[in-house]
Amino acid sequence: MNSIICKFCNNDANNKTLEEFDRFGMSIYFCSACKAEYITYKSGKLASTSLYSELNSKLYRVSFNSHGLWLWYVGVPGIPGIPGVSKNKEMKLLKSFNDEIVVDINLNNINDKIKYWLLFI
User: Fold this and answer.
1) How many domains is the chain built from?
2) Domain residues for 60?
3) Is the pLDDT at 82 greater than 90, yes or no?
């Protein structure tokens, strides 16, 4: 598949799969407009969704699926990977939530959610 539909803006999220993920039977799609990343199995089933957001000149990634939610520090803008070219390096897991948490993450509230979670780290 060359693209999937982004659940945040309904535009195309283009296939940006890196060779190392393809070897594991995974595909990566990225929506540049929303900074949303979708990792799928080759069957098309969604493995995880991530939103990237810049806050106070730092880049964070919130990843979620049916098993939980994870807040990552990616680094200062310019250091993270480039979709379809290189993967993120030196990411740091800041907070992990189990599957009992239900969080409505969207483009309008992601920065507020990150600010709140950072209070507890």
Assistant:
1) 1
2) 3-118
3) no
Cβ neighbours of residue 25 closer than 8 Å, sequence gap 6 or more: 41, 42
Per the CB < 8 A criterion, the answer to whether 7 and 51 are in contact is: no
CA distance 102 to 44: 24
Residue 86 gets which letter from DSSP?
B
Going by C-alpha positions, the residue among 46, 95, 49, 40 that lies closest to residue 70 is 95
Tokens of 69: 């939610």
Evaluate if residue 1 carries a pLDDT over 90.
Answer: no
C-alpha of 99 from chain center = 17
Burial of 1 (0-12, 13-18, 19+ CB in 10 A): exposed
From residue 14, give the alpha-carbon distance in Å to each of 4, 77, 105: 7, 21, 21
